[in-house]
């Protein structure tokens, strides 16, 4: 029987795709500890497929937004805090605050349809970084906000299947990392303006 996890800030039960080294949840916060060499990526230029990063996902029906403030010590290249859409092993998308090879906290998105793409967007300053996933009909959107409170559109896309939604921690080149998702907020409302910053 699959173990389920309840979070007060998430309206349905969640399940682990991969178990973390450790985790905790309290109120609207979730902490996930990823071990060394953990990742979710299907390299488009090589046969390498990685799917051992700990992730906690659950079902959200209809239009919604799900956001969280993300905090982690970015110690090694590609350490990341991730909001995740997961339909199956071949169809998923992740939205990351990730340490770039240049040593900068960077917003990265990956959409996988058999193989992954990899899109580095903007570098981030400050500690108040929030990520958000929205479903608008058959499409999805990734937004990021900093201290300004303006939600910047990073990606707008479709993903086949009926993906679950959740949280992932990864440390592909490092010895592990602890990711904390704070101020998790779910809303069943439809996002009315992709580019208006709402």
CATH architecture verdict: Sandwich
N to C succession of SSEs: EEEEEEEEEEEEEEEEEE
Profile the largest sheet: 9 strands, antiparallel
Strand content: over 45%
Distance between the termini: 40 Å
- Secondary-structure-based class equals mainly beta
* Shape field: globular
Overall number of strands: 18
Helical percentage: under 10%
Mean pLDDT: 96
| Number of distinct helices | 0
Radius of gyration from the alpha-carbon trace, in angstroms: 15 Å
Work out the count of structural domains.
1
Pfam family, one: DUF1349
Organism: Streptosporangium vulgare
InterPro entries: ConA-like_dom_sf, DUF1349
Protein name: DUF1349 domain-containing protein
What does this structure look like?
There is one protein chain. With 198 residues, the chain is an all-beta fold. It has a single domain (4-9, 22-187), classed as Jelly Rolls, CATH 2.60.120.200. 0% of the residues lie in helices and 57% in strands. The protein is built from no helices and 18 strands. Strands 1, 2, 7, 9, 10, 11, 12, 13 and 17 form a nine-stranded antiparallel beta sheet that branches. Strands 3-4-18-8-14-15-16 form a seven-stranded antiparallel beta sheet, with no helix packed on it. Strands 5-6 form a two-stranded antiparallel sheet. Strand 14 (130-136) and strand 15 form a beta hairpin. The mean pLDDT is 96.
């Amino acid at each position: 029987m699959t173990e389920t996890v309840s979070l007060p800030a998430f309206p349905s039960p969640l399940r682990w795709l991969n178990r973390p080294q450790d985790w905790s949840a309290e109120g609207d916060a979730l902490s996930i500890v990823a071990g060394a060499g953990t990742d979710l990526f299907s390299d488009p230029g090589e046969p390498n497929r990685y799917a051992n990063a700990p992730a906690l996902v659950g079902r959200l029906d209809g239009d919604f937004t799900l956001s969280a403030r993300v905090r982690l010590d970015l110690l090694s290249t590609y350490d990341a805090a991730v909001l995740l859409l997961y339909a199956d092993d071949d169809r998923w998308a992740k939205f990351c605050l990730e340490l770039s090879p240049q040593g900068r906290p960077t917003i990265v998105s990956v959409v996988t349809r058999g193989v992954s793409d990899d899109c580095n967007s903007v570098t981030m300053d400050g500690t108040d970084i929030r990520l958000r996933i929205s479903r608008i009909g058959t499409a999805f959107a990734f937004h990021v906000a900093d201290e300004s409170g303006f939600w910047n559109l990073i990606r707008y896309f479709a993903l086949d299947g009926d993906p679950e939604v959740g949280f992932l921690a990864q440390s592909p080149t490092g010895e592990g990392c602890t990711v904390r998702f704070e101020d998790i907020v779910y809303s069943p409302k439809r996002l009315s303006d992709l580019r208006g910053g709402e």
